Amino acid sequence: PPAIERLSSGLFQEVIITNTIPVLEQNYFPQLTVLSVANLLGETIWRVHDDCSGGYEPYSSLGID
C-alpha cells in the first residue's frame, strides 16, 4: 500500500504505533515498532477499581521503554 511505502522509504528512522489496532503481517516494515498498551490499560483498570487518581507515572514504571 502507498502509505506503507512512504513510511518505510527511509524518511523516518522509526515509526512507533500501539497495538490498539491490529497490523497485518504483510504491512510490517523494518522501521516499524509496535508498543503494547497492556500495562497502561491494566494500570488504569487497577486505579479505577481501587478508586485511585490517575496521576502521572513515568513510562518506565509502566513497563514501556
From TrEMBL:
Top-level taxon: Eukaryota
GO MF term list: magnesium ion binding; ribose phosphate diphosphokinase activity
GO-annotated biological processes: 5-phosphoribose 1-diphosphate biosynthetic process; purine nucleotide biosynthetic process
InterPro entries assigned: PRTase-like, Rib-P_diPkinase
GO CC annotation: cytoplasm; ribose phosphate diphosphokinase complex
Family (UniProt): Belongs to the ribose-phosphate pyrophosphokinase family.
UniProt cross-references to PANTHER family, sorted A to Z: RIBOSE-PHOSPHATE DIPHOSPHOKINASE FAMILY MEMBER, RIBOSE-PHOSPHATE PYROPHOSPHOKINASE 5, CHLOROPLASTIC
Name the UniProt record assigns to this protein: Uncharacterized protein
The organism of origin for this protein: Punica granatum
